[in-house]
Amino acid sequence: MNNKIQPNEKEITAKKTPRLPVLEIASRSGQTKPVLLARDIIQPNELRKEDVANAASKAQALEVDPYTEANVVFFNTPNYLEITEWDGEDQVESTKHNNATFHASGQPVEKLLIIRAEWNDAGPATYVAKVRIKKIYSYQYSLSEDPDKYTVMKFLPDEDEEWNSGPTDNPMYETRLLGGELPKLQSTFPELNISKLPSYFVFHKGVKLLATDDEKELESFLTQTTTVTHSGKGENWKAEFITKHKLGEGIAVLAIQSIGTEKPLPREISLFVEGTEWTMDQYIEELDAAGQVLVSFDFERMIRNEDKISLTMKWSRQEETIYLTHTNNGSSLEPKVSIKAKVSKLTDEQYADVGTTGLENPKKDDFRYFTFNLKTSNPRETIQQDDLPTIRVFREAIDKIDGKSRYWFGNGYGKPDGEEHWEAVFYSKGLTEEQIKKAFDSTIVTVHFTDGKKEYKLGDYVSFED
Questions:
Q1: pTM > 0.90
Q2: CATH 2.60.40.10 segments of the chain
Q3: Integer Cα distance of 147 and 304 in angstroms
Q4: What are the tens digits of pLDDT across the range 303-313?
C-alpha cells in the first residue's frame, strides 16, 4: 500500500513565510524587543487602538534617560523603516521620528512607538515598542517637552504681580510659574536649594544653567551678551578662562601659556577645569612655538565674577593646579592669538601625490610638508581683519632662499570659528633648517583688533618635526 501523506495548509504556509530578522530597541540603559503587531505594514488609518493596547500590554518598557536617544537596531538592515509615537490620550499616531532614532524629551512619561519595517527577503512587519523616560530631577515635570527650547522656572510668592499677567514665552524658551510656601518648595525641589522667594532658574535639556534671586540677572541672561574673564598664574603656567554668553550661543575659551623653564616645551598635556556644578577635560598634544594654546568649546552656563574656577594640568609626570579668579583689567577685550607653523617630513601617502618630473633621482626625503594654523579666541566680533600670508607669499619666500623653484603645491581655508589654515609641499633638498626658518622672517601675520593691531613674525613660530 503506497499512500502519500499530504501536508496540511498550515504547514505549507509556515514553510513559505520567511522568518523576520531580529529587531530590537536599545538605549544606554539596555535593550528590549518590540512586540510584533502584524506581518504587514498597517497604515495609520487602519491601526486599531485595541490592537495597539493589547500589544503594549505585552511589551517590556525600555528605560531611557531624559534628553537622550533610543535606537532601533537590527542585524539585517530593512529597506524601509518608520518610527512614530502613539498618542495615548487621542489614540492616534503623532510625532514621527527621523531615521531609526527616538529622541526622548525631559518629561518622565511612558511612550508607545509604532515601528514599521520591511525587508526584501522577509517582507513587511509592524511592531509596538514601549519606552519609559526616567525621572531623575525633582523639577522634571516642569521642563519643556521641546528639547531645543530652554525652560525658565520662576518660583514666586503669592503676592507677586506676575501671577496676574501670566508666563511670558519666547521662541527660544518656555516660562513656568510655580508658587507655594517656601518650606514646601524646598522639600519638593531639594536639589535646587531655593533659599528665598522669588527665585529664578534656567534649564536646557535638564541642565541647570542659571540660578538667581535677581530678576535683572535673569533678564540679562536671557537677552544680553556678557563676557567674563577669570585668570590665574602658577609656577609653570598662567591661564585665562573667557566666557562669552548669549542665550543659545555660549562659548568659552581657555588660553594657556607656559611660563616654566622646561625645554623643550611641554607636550601631551591633560587639562581638567572645574567650576560651580560643572567640569571640563581636554587633551593637548602640543603648544605653539610661543608656548601657548587656545581651547574653545560650547558653554551655556552662567559664569559670575565671584565664581572660583580651578585648572589642573598634568604633563611629563608633573602636575600643577591654578585657581582662576575674576579679572577686570580689560584683557579679554583683545582676543588671544595662537600661531603654529610646522615643517615636517612627508608620509608615504603625501609623497605619492608629489610629481617629480625633471628631478634627478628624487626621493621622499627631498621634500618637506609645511603647515600653518592661526587660531583666535574671538574670531569675527573683535577681529576686524587679519592679513595672513597667502600661498603666493609662501611661494615667494621659499623660492627666494637660493633662487630655485622650490614651491611644489599648496592650499588653504578659513573657518568661521576663527581658525585659518594652509599647507604646502616644497623641495627641500640641500636646505638647512636655519635657511628655511630665515625665509619666513620677512613674512608678517597682522591681526587687526577693535582697538589696534598686532604683528607676528612667522619665522618666530616655525618648528621642525621628523
A1: no
A2: 226-333
A3: 26
A4: 888 888 999 99
